[in-house]
Amino acid sequence: MSYDVIVIGLGGMGSAAAYRLAERGQRVLGIDRYPPVHDQGSSHGGSRITRQAYFEDPAYVPLLLRAEELWREVEARSGRTVVHYTGGLMIGRPGSRTVAGSLASARQWGLDHELLDADAVHARFPTFTLADDEIALYEGKAGFVVPEASVAAHLRLAAEAGAELHYSELVTTWEAVAGGVRVRTAEGVYTAERLVLCPGAWAPELLADLGIPFAIERQVQYWFTPGGPVGPFLQDRHPIYVWDPEDGRQFYGFPATDDDPAAGVKVAFFRGGRICTPSTIDRTVDPAEIDAMVSYTTGRLPELAGTCCRAVTCMYTNTPDEHFVIARHPAHERVVVACGFSGHGFKFVPVVGEIVADLSVDGQTRHPIELFDPTRFVTSSVGDRL
């Protein structure tokens, strides 16, 4: 059987793409090397931050505003709660990227926000202890997305819209052929008019011809048991945060999502993980890594004791400038790529699905994606368009 579109990768982005394509009446085949909603890539761990005052670049804000609309739509259609709005603190010195960048985006786009000094933060959110020269931008629209719930909801909606979804099936090669594409897997050969690649950490393997020096970074997510009651860390009292300390080793965290102290409170570093590949990643978290995380939480979140009750790994797929790659393939106009989300992409999942469907069906999108052009890394053409 031939399809209109094959989607390779059914994690965060691929599940959303499969749904949006099937919703438009496309005959969709989705393929993933693992069972659905797995923990081997970048779409697990129970929570991912969502925020709109975006310090990375104000150009992301229109996409975040659209993502908020689409998250609500996905929740209504699937019957699942995917996003929890807890408010969020962007913490650091006034000139830090986290604070200054968030403030620039908030002002440019007229986003509701407050600037709080260290005393005001502690008065409102007693779990946080800032240095005297640190401030925070508070954003009420911040919170967290549950990645597993997002993937499950999008896969269900895709299947209900008619998508054929294959799990535990390894893609070995893809190629452009006359009038379409051909995908080979361990199970067979499939053809389609168009192809969507959402490969996550397998981007270096499946998209080597883009010439982008992707770096796969091992990241660790930690859960700590509070020294006292878990109540102060619940989401009505403890917002998400991104903290930019003086040494620049940015870290972030979430409220407790369970009133059982044993479930823990999640924290993680934003950068600085070991470079790896999906086949070489070390899934074991050693005591020195836990100690490093403890050193950052002890003084800043003093009610969160240094007892780590759980730690799991995931992977970032980083581009050199930490901006995404979303475009039609420069050499193959029938192929759309969405990858290189560099550790800050999950909040964009539903709008990336919409953009990918636009590019695949219409060849263009109304959304601003100029920042994500893969040719920004290449000095010469990677090939002729079909």
Q: What is the tally of helical segments?
A: 8
N- to C-terminal distance: 23 Å
Task: Estimate the helix proportion, in percent.
Answer: 10-25%
Count of DSSP E strands?
20
Describe the sheet with the most strands: 9 strands, mixed
Give unreliable regions as ranges.
Answer: 380-386
Give the mean pLDDT. Answer: 95
Order of helices and strands: EHEEHEEHEHEEHEEEEHEEEEEHEEEH
Strand content: 25-35%
Tags for this model:
eight-stranded mixed beta sheet; 8 helices; 24% helix; globular; disordered C terminus
What does this 3D model show about the protein?
The protein is of the alpha+beta class. The protein has helices at about 10-25, 60-80, 95-110, 120-125, 145-160, 205, 285-295, 350-360; strands at about 1-10, 30, 50, 85, 90, 115, 135-140, 145, 165, 170-175, 180-185, 190-195, 215-225, 240-245, 250-255, 265-270, 275, 305-320, 325-330, 330-340. The strands form three sheets. Strands 5, 6, 7, 13, 14, 15, 16, 17 and 18 form a nine-stranded mixed beta sheet that branches. Strands 1, 2, 9, 10, 11, 12, 19 and 20 form an eight-stranded mixed beta sheet that branches. It has a three-stranded antiparallel beta sheet with strand order 3-8-4. Helix 1 (about 10-25) runs parallel beside helix 5 (about 145-160) and helix 2 crosses helix 5 (about 145-160). It is globular. It starts with a strand and ends in a 24-residue tail after the last helix.
